[in-house]
C-alpha cells in the first residue's frame, strides 16, 4: 500500500486547516490536534484539496465516532461544481444511512439500523456503481447501487453538530495480496470527539 495523502492534525490550534483542506460550508478548526466543526449547526462540509487522489473514483472513507449520534459522516466523489457526493451518515441512535446528494438535493439510498455505540467506525466505500457502508467493520446490507455519481471527486466530511472532532485522515492505494483482483485506492478518515 502507498499512502497518497494523510493528515493527523497534530499542529497548533487554528481556524486555518492548512493548504490541503477547503472549508466548503461552516467554520472548521484545528483544536487539540483534531479537526473540529466549531461553531454552527447545519450541513458543514470540509473537503480535501490535494490532487493525489482527485482522479480516483473508487475510495473507502472511514470516521471514528465517539458518541453514538454525532450527526456526521464521510463523503466521497465530492464535487462542489455539481454539488454532489455520496454520504455515509450516522444520525439518530441506531441509525446509519447512505445518501447521495445531486444538485443540492439529498436522496436516501439505504437505511440501516445497527446497534450504535460510542467509539464506532463508519466506513463508506464507493466502487463503480456500488456503495457500501460498514459499521464497526460489519458490512450493512443491502448495498446501495446508484449511477448518478460515477466520476472521481474529492473526499471529505459532513457534520451537523457542534464541536465534533475528527482525526487521522488517510488516503491509500492498495492491491489484493498474492496477485489477487486489483483493488482501487482507499481513503480512511478517523475522528475523535
Write a structural description.
The chain is mostly beta strands. It has a single domain (2-190), classed as Exo-inulinase, domain 1 (Jelly Rolls, Sandwich), CATH 2.60.120.560. It is 0% helix and 54% strand. The protein contains no helices and 16 strands. The chain has strands at 2-7, 21-25, 28-31, 34-37, 44-48, 59-65, 72-79, 84-90, 96-102, 105-112, 120-127, 130-135, 138-145, 154-159, 164-173, 186-190. The strands form 3 sheets. Strands 2-5-14-7-8-9-10 form a 7-stranded antiparallel beta sheet, with no helix packed on it. Strands 1, 3, 4, 15 and 16 form a 5-stranded antiparallel beta sheet that branches. Residues 174-193 have low confidence and may be disordered.
**Estimated share of beta-strand residues:** over 45%
Helix content: under 10%
Query: Low-confidence parts, pLDDT < 50 over ≥5 residues?
Result: 174-193
Tally of separate domains: 1
- Known CATH architecture: Sandwich
Distance between the termini: 28 Å
- The CATH topology name reads Jelly Rolls
- Return the structural class: mainly beta
Over all CA atoms, what is the radius of gyration? Answer: 15 Å
Net shape:
globular
SSE string? EEEEEEEEEEEEEEEE
Instruction: Report the major sheet.
Output: 7 strands, antiparallel
Residue-averaged pLDDT: 75
Strand order of the largest sheet: 2-5-14-7-8-9-10
Give the number of helices: 0
Counting DSSP E segments of at least 2 residues, the number of strands comes to: 16
